[in-house]
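for the writeup, i need someone to sanity check this before i put it in the appendix. the sequnce is what the collaborator sent (i think, or maybe the updated version? ugh). structure was predicted straight from it, no edits. if anything looks off just tell me and ill rerun, i have time this weekend
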Amino acid sequence: MNIRPTIHDLRSAGGKDAAILDLLHLLELHEPPVRLRVDYLQELWRCSQSQVSRRMAAINELGCCCVLNVWGRYRLSMEAPLPKPERISRLQASRQRWAALQQQWQEAQL
């Protein structure tokens, strides 16, 4: 008898990329966008709330989908998340402004 393993079976066996397997498991069960309750995910994956949180954060870090945590539910959508804003120090910002002012001054002199 040839029984096809499910994605949950593959992840339980210890795959290399658990976050991808978790995402595929959720996509196998639900059509995104979807809201998933934490207690549902705990029961589905047979793990604690903190493990659900880590696993959903790992799915979000894949960059191919967007996971938001809102009031005890996770919203999973296949929209690409916005890139994180680049943080620059105040010193770098003032140097950039000064360089722009110098360039404008030189262009005005010509």
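Residues 1 and 9 are 17 Å apart (CA to CA). The mean pLDDT is 82.
thx in advance!!
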